[in-house]
Predict the 3D structure of the following.
Amino acid sequence: MKGEPLKGWVWADDPFGDIAARIDGASFSALARTLFDQGTADSARTAIDAAYERCVRSRSARAESAPLLAAGIRHPDIGVRLTAATAIRDVAEAAAEAVESLAQQVADPPPAAFEDVGSLEARVFGAALEALIALGDPRWRRPFMTALVAGGITADALNLLIDTGVTADPELLAAVRRRLAALPPEGPAESGGYDAYLGRMQWHNEVNGLTRLLHLWGPVAAGAVPELVPLVLHDRGWTVRALAAIGPAASAAVPALTLVRDDPEAPWGRRLDCARALAAITGDTGQVSARIAEAAACGEPLPAARTAVEHELPIDNLLPALRDVAATSGGDDPSAIRRGRAARGRRPAAARTPGSRAVDRRAAAGPGRGRRPAAARASRTGQRRCRDTGRRLLRSAGPPGRGGTPPAPRHPARPRDLERETAPAAVDGGGVVPSGLVRCPIST
């Protein structure tokens, strides 16, 4: 009853987990409920953790574990409530049973829930809010809008709104506009150390979630155009796509989109995105064809072909370049790996000592400790992505069109693939943006 049962037991690393995994459902429910009702807060967390593990392993265990998880939401210890809320978010049976407790958690959250998104109070509020959104319970709306304006909403909740296809209403759109207006048009400068990096990452994730939500709403979100226009010059995510989804009502964004489209220093992916948005707003598709031809002439066949496929334009003149890209080895092909091993095997024995290999690696990598620099690793990843994209575009194009008729795509690329390939992979050129979808661990 005092925390972890059988703690320090020398015959097993996790004796309670071993016991919980081997007893039947009725016996486990009785044991876990006893620990929860009569033990300490640590014992209650242990019982909820074990119940959640059984729910993960077996669907049939979810119904019998739901009452315990639901009771955890009402526990006086905030650590227990967090453990239960995090588990309930993933167990629908428990969420349905605990819906009243979840609504109570989000209806009157403590001030700390909005002051620090990493605090226990904020994590309990976020998990309860996500569970209500997933259930379709409308009581999430008012707390969500209050937290959004205060900056207390994480990327998880925004992404869940998108995944569940939540429709816009005037109050929700107004809250999104107020939050966008409160954000700076660009993230913190790249200099400034780790804190500045975290600030850039947080800015990117929040802007990305809000603009994806506006993209989902399309023309209904026309009122948010004034808040989107300042982001066009700095955001490499969904701002331009949201303006394209809004359509002709986003005419105020035409000057900013034209500026980026014609900027020779901007990446071709962004320039073509702006060209597509301008076509959706003004109806001028001729400028899209012109930018596709210009991108191909500048040695950028992949974004040019992707844009052509999306607009159902012929890509016959791009096929030779796409074949070259598709035939390029990204370094991870089995044949390339075998050739590299064979080359290493032919080296003299004296040259294959551990010390000499380390010296060779350091010399080849330049400054550092033997590992390839981040830019080199990103370049290798980019080569593989380009190769795979080129192959997929070739498959979608099919045989060359005849008589000037554009070929019909046989296997068009999935929207998720296009999203992954065109979305920004890094904040400052080297590090990957951590996703806001990573779940927190159950135990605290």
User: Anything to note?
Assistant: The mean pLDDT is 78. The radius of gyration is 27 Å. The chain has 24 helices and no strands. Residues 285-340+382-431 form one domain.
